[in-house]
Amino acid sequence: MIFAHTAQQASDALSGIFSPNKRALRQAARVMIACGMTYALIHVLALEQGFWAIVTVLIVMQGVSVGATIGAATDRLIATIAGAVLGGAALLVTPQGMVATGISLVVVTGLCAFAAMRTSRLRVAGITAAIVMLTRTPEIPVTVFVVDRILEIGLGGVIGVICSRLILPTRSRKELITRLKSVIEATRDMLETHAKALESGQAGSAVEAGIALRKSLTAAEGLQADVRRERSAFMAKHGVSDAIPRTLWRIRNDIMHINRLDETPFRPFVAEKVGKPAAGVLRAEAEFIRRCGQALEEDHAVDRSEDDIAMKQFEQAFADFSQSEDVREIPFEQVGRLFGLAFALRKMRQDFHDLADRIDESYRV
């Protein structure tokens, strides 16, 4: 009995230590195994400067997901080939001597920097070119030295991808869906904030939340490229439609439009007759985007039951108010904002339908 209680306490303690750090521990295990494999291989293959393979493993495995590692390894290999060939060509045509080598080095690194500004995947080409030009010894032929550097860095990239794929792999699609879920939760919170403001007739503002949402969407778009790499490498059955982040951007812009419209409160009788139905639409949209997130996570079609009830109620309330004498009692500026609110809600409804369609497309692929 005492032993069982002690064992349970130890298990709970270990769980408390490891659970919050599970992601970091998995990544550490992948990198350790990859470095060990690379170290063993460079000795088996007797690579003269095999440390570049280990450096490459550490660089390409900075991305946690398989797709990120594939992208980093591909970019690293392309930049290595470009830099090594350019550096090797410079060595072949440059006379021996400190001044001539220095001038050649300046020209080559300048060309690489220009290329890197035009194509980001060539960022390390200049580093490779400089290494080739400065570390090659006279007794080693230039072509042999260049090929060895390419092979060493290629070896590191291949090992990095294999270890990311086989050792506790983290899929980019899962990472992207997690990120999109956080975007959806933030969107729900913004919708609820504006619903409360419209219902109560108070000013509503969610500018800071909108900025945070923009950052999350930008990060999600970056993960989308990793998902495409996994699909192209046949490491994922299906991805996430590129249109989903774009549609979430439009919804975010719709909400920011509403934010500008209700920064100044409407008059109490306007809030009572139109604000409350508008708040009902926002709450219905908050529930709808929750179902969209659930469908995305669980990989099924979006539930569209009771989809347009709140919008129909708002349209009726808005039509009744716009044809009543009450509309004459509010300033022209508020009339403009009221019609702007109706337009924004209709536009947002269309964008939510579009989001559901894009999620359904990803589910069917």
TrEMBL record:
Subcellular localization(s) per the UniProt record: Cell membrane
Highest rank taxon of the organism: Bacteria
GO molecular function: transmembrane transporter activity
Pfam families (alphabetical): FUSC
Membrane topology category: Multi-pass membrane protein
Principal location class: membrane
Transmembrane segments: 28-45, 51-70, 77-93, 99-117, 124-144, 150-168
Stored InterPro entries: PHBA_efflux_AaeB/fusaric-R
Record-level GO cellular component terms: plasma membrane
Keywords: Cell membrane, Membrane, Transmembrane, Transmembrane helix, Transport
The protein's name in its UniProt record: FUSC family protein
